[in-house]
Design goal:
single chain; about 5% strand; 16 helices; about 425 residues; 5 strands
């Protein structure tokens, strides 16, 4: 039977195979069924994981909009309450955590949206996030010096709020850049939110002109790097900060990508604003971001020839359907009275029990554990000295510590008080 001429497991006359052949056939079918089942199971697991990721990204975006509403409408009422009727055992620890919650959400989204899949998972809420980022960038341009009047608690609260909002606004630069990277995979409403409703091109050009990532304090120049204002090194060639690079990359996408060029309408006003970029496109900048060479050539052509017309055929239509961002309005209308909300939250916000202080101290201590050599909070060099009060900030020398003391003092007061109570 098995001499090589007939098939293995078959009878000589071509009759069906014996018991061995039937068993082998069943095993083969079983293996095929198992492989198909494993593939189906893997596909279902992948689909569940994608749904979970989509839910996480959307939940963080909604939480971000809710936090923005609280900061805009509830925080001024909290400040007014502290000014008019400050409690005797006032503690700003919980407010410090709440104010930094928004910057934490922006940072999480900034990390997630670097991935195309996460950015596409925003789906219909992407337009709400785009509107949020444009509002924060407009606020970055309209920043002004805060009034230093008020009690020490009010001044400390203002400094904490300014630091948190700066982190939010510079984080929005990265989010806008990632959304422009994957614009062709996002809903059409995102393009209208960026180009029609807000004209993010003009906003970013204004950010470049003002160099919003730099602040001059007397003779010293500070730049926004690694989530804080740090002193710029003197006598060395200036490299691009992350915020500056994100602005230029976003502008490159907005002005060079065919998706945006098909919908962006140039007028005499915005054309003159866009052409202002040419004076900042130096050889040093293009050496650090080579794709900007094509953008510089495109701007040179724009200065000579007429403005290109958008190729979007939807502009010629008499009727246009556009998705409207409604999440923020829905969240705002869900709160009937912000005064009543603040009155209900005041007892928990401004009073911290001993047990809560110990729990906060333990959580902060666990976060502050460092696995590498500490760095100076001012210049970023390797540090060997630490603040004697809060045991939190590190410095390389006494000069850096003295330079950072005005901004570090509010946080140092809170942490050192908790450290003292915990030691007792």
């Amino acid at each position: 039977v098995n001499d090589g001429e007939p098939g293995r497991g078959q009878h000589v006359g071509g009759a069906p195979g014996g018991a061995r052949g039937r068993r082998r056939g069943r095993r083969g079918r079983a293996c095929v069924d198992c492989a198909a089942g494993a593939r189906r199971q893997a596909q279902r697991a992948g689909a569940r994981e994608r749904r979970r990721r989509r839910g996480r990204v959307r939940a963080r975006s909604v939480a971000l909009l809710r936090q923005e509403l609280w900061r805009e409408r509830a925080l001024p009422l909290v400040v007014k309450l502290i000014e008019t009727n400050p409690p005797p055992d006032l503690s700003l620890l919980k407010l410090f955590v709440i104010l930094n919650h928004e910057s934490s959400l922006v940072n999480l989204l900034e990390l997630c949206l670097y991935n195309k899949e996460a950015c596409v998972a925003l789906d219909d809420i992407a337009s709400d996030l785009a509107e949020y980022c444009c509002r924060q960038l407009l606020a970055l341009l309209s920043e002004k010096e805060e009034d230093e009047a008020g009690s020490p608690e009010i001044q400390q609260l203002r400094r904490m709020s300014n630091t948190a909002t700066s982190a939010v606004r510079f984080g929005c630069l990265s989010i806008v850049r990632y959304m422009t990277d994957y614009a062709k995979d996002l809903p059409l409403s995102v393009l209208y939110a960026l180009l029609e409703n807000n004209d993010v091109v003009q906003i970013l050009v204004e950010v470049v002109e003002r160099r919003s990532w730099e602040v001059r304090n007397g003779d010293s120049l500070q730049r926004w790097e690694n989530g804080r204002w740090t002193a710029a090194p003197t006598g060395q060639p200036q490299t691009l900060t992350q915020a500056e690079a994100q602005v230029w990359l976003a502008l490159n996408n907005l002005l060079m990508d065919q998706v945006f060029r098909a919908k962006y309408r140039f007028t005499t006003a915005n054309k003159s604003i866009v052409l202002k970029l040419r004076r900042y496109m130096t050889e040093e900048l293009i050496d650090q971001i080579p794709p900007l060479a094509d953008l510089r050539m495109q701007l040179d052509q724009l200065a000579v020839f007429d403005s290109p017309l958008p190729t979007d055929v939807a502009r010629a239509s008499a009727v246009m359907i556009q998705q409207v961002s409604t999440v923020r309005e829905t969240l705002a209308t869900a709160v009937h009275s912000w005064q009543a909300l603040v009155a209900a939250q005041a007892e928990r916000l401004l009073h911290v029990s001993q047990e809560e202080k110990e729990a906060h101290f333990e959580s902060i201590s666990s976060v502050l554990v460092q696995s590498e050599a500490p760095r100076c909070a001012v210049c970023g060099k390797e540090a060997h000295k630490r603040c004697a009060r809060c045991k939190n900030e590190w410095y390389c020398c006494r000069e850096c510590q003295m330079r950072a003391w005005p901004g570090h003092k509010p946080v140092c007061d809170v942490l050192s008080e908790d450290l003292h109570l915990h030691s007792k």
